[in-house]
Structures are given as structure tokens and as C-alpha cells.
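Figure 2 data, in text form.
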Amino acid sequence: MSNLHDILRSAITALFAFLLLAGAVVAQVNFERGQLAFETASGDRITFDVEWALTAEQRARGLMERPALPDRTGMLFDFGETRMVTMWMANTPESLDMIFIDETGRIVRIAERTTPMSESIVSSGEPVRYALEIRGGHAAELGLEPSARLVLPLDLPQ
């Protein structure tokens, strides 16, 4: 019986160590920063300071456990190819607008005011290359609509 107890204690210790290590790795995901803009149908430019989510690790971490985003800030997810995209709000304490963008820069869908901490799936609705997350309700405040086009900087990180 003592042998079984030792094995069980070792297994629990190993699991605990793994979970601590996994949490530390997730917490250490770093993002490069930059700017992007949308050009509206009337010719105005709406700019954002963003973090770039370019790798699978960065996209998985996203804006989880972040406080409310300031105005004109967000995170741009680049999926590296055009495809159907699904996202969720697990571990995200503040509502976000999710702006789904195709490879030409056309906004195909704006999922407004997503539900904080929800595991419900938010779909792009059609194939996209990018998704921009900003503070919930901010797209409407800025007048950002599907007629606007995303303008990426020439120095987008690789």
C-alpha cells in the first residue's frame, strides 16, 4: 500500500509541476507592437496601436486575462492564410469587438460586444486572413464599417 501511495504522490507532484510550468510558459508570450489603419469610404483613416499575434502560441494566448483595452488599441491576429476562423472569449474579462478581415483588407464581419469569459464560438462567417480585437463597442464609436479597408504597414513582423 505504501508503494501505491508513493506512486500516487509522485504522479500528483509531476502533474502540479507540469501545470506550473505550462502556466509560466503561457504567461511569457511576448508580442511585437505596431500600427495599422483602416481607410473609410469617405477617405478618413482610423489608426490603431496593435500587438501582432502571428504565431500559433501568440494566437492561442491572445488577450486572455487582460484588463480593458484603451481606445485605438488592439491585437491583430494574422492566420498566415485565408481560412474560416473561430475564436472565443475564454479567460478574457472584458468585452471585445472582433473584426474579421479578408486578405484584401475588406472587413467581412464585425462581432460586436462579445461576451466576456464565454466559451461560445465566434465565427468569421466566411474565410478571412486577419482578425482584429478591440474594446467592445469601439468599432461603432469610431464608425468602423465593412466599407472600410485595412491598410497594413510595410514592416509587418514576420
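Caption note: Helices lie at 2-27, 56-61, 138-142.
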